Amino acid sequence: MLSYRHGFHAGNFADVFKHLVLSLLIQSQLRKNKPFYYLDTHGGSGCYDLNSGMARKNREYESGIGRIWQEKDIPDEAQGYFEVVRHINPQGALNTYPGSPCLTRFFMRAGDRMDVCDLHNTEAGALKTLFAKDSAVKVHAMDGYQALKALLPPRERRGVVLIDPAFELKDERERLLEALKQAYKRWSTGIYAVWYPIQDKAALDWFHRQLARSGIAPILCTELTIHDQYQPLRLNGSGLIIINPPWQLDQQLEAAGPWLLNKLSPDGKGLFKLEWLAYPPERLPGNANS
């Protein structure tokens, strides 16, 4: 149950996509002077050494961040993400990859706050070491779904929640959906980002149908695949469900997504997808403003 270690996959194409989207969500919180809150339910180690034995076993980062981190023709929407990657690799060599807690911490200002969780003892220990002297970050060695119940709603009243499980368990999607529904009841105005792998099409279609019928709205779905077909035993791509997406996020992704697809799937077999599973009021079919 607790065998997953993200260090084996750090910096792969799915990480790049997830963290580019997350960077846009976090940067949206900087538009106002009021403090924001960030909750990471499955934080991993927080930051990853790409020279470690785990990272170098399959070298997944080479077909992800390693392929693009020194690109020059970066769209404006992706600049913040690349700024973080380059900041933690100041010598010009790609040695470190920022996990979601590390990436978010880069953007946080005085007064902003983070709770980061992981149930794996080793990962939680790494997080505690990483943020040992950081009063803005609190680490919890606990189940991420329990954290949604225990830590929401935050006192800040605005912020981002990243739910990023390993999908090791057969009932992961069911657990995730139930936890998400309960979290939304507790804090309906927060921004939620839910990561998922694209492997089995039937399971993915079921997941999307359940979300669309959940009563939660608005829901924006974005996906990036780098292969031309679904194969259950292969990571064909990944997606993110965004609940309460910030203003113009869909436009930002329409600009950054195709660029990222072109760089990460150079043979042209992949697909970038962006769709609403549940519309915001201004986009409802038949609305004069839609």
UniProtKB/TrEMBL annotation:
Residues the UniProt record annotates as site (Interaction with substrate rRNA): 4
Binding site for S-adenosyl-L-methionine: 19, 42, 100, 118, 143-144, 164
The EC number(s) this enzyme carries: 2.1.1.266
A matching Pfam family: RsmJ
GO molecular function, one term: 23S rRNA (adenine(2030)-N(6))-methyltransferase activity
Enzyme class, first EC level, given as a word: transferase
InterPro entries assigned to the protein according to its UniProt record, in alphabetical order: RlmJ, SAM-dependent_MTases_sf
This protein's UniProt keywords: Methyltransferase, RNA-binding, rRNA processing, S-adenosyl-L-methionine, Transferase
GO cellular component: cytosol
Active-site feature positions: 164
Any single GO BP term: rRNA base methylation
Keyword Ribosomal protein assigned: no
Coiled-coil parts of chain: none
Reaction it catalyzes: adenosine(2030) in 23S rRNA + S-adenosyl-L-methionine = N(6)-methyladenosine(2030) in 23S rRNA + S-adenosyl-L-homocysteine + H(+)
Main function: Specifically methylates the adenine in position 2030 of 23S rRNA.
Family that this chain belongs to: Belongs to the RlmJ family.
Assembly and oligomerization: Monomer.
HAMAP family: 23SrRNA_methyltr_J
Name of this chain's protein: Ribosomal RNA large subunit methyltransferase J
Organism (species): Candidatus Methylospira mobilis
Gene of this entry: rlmJ
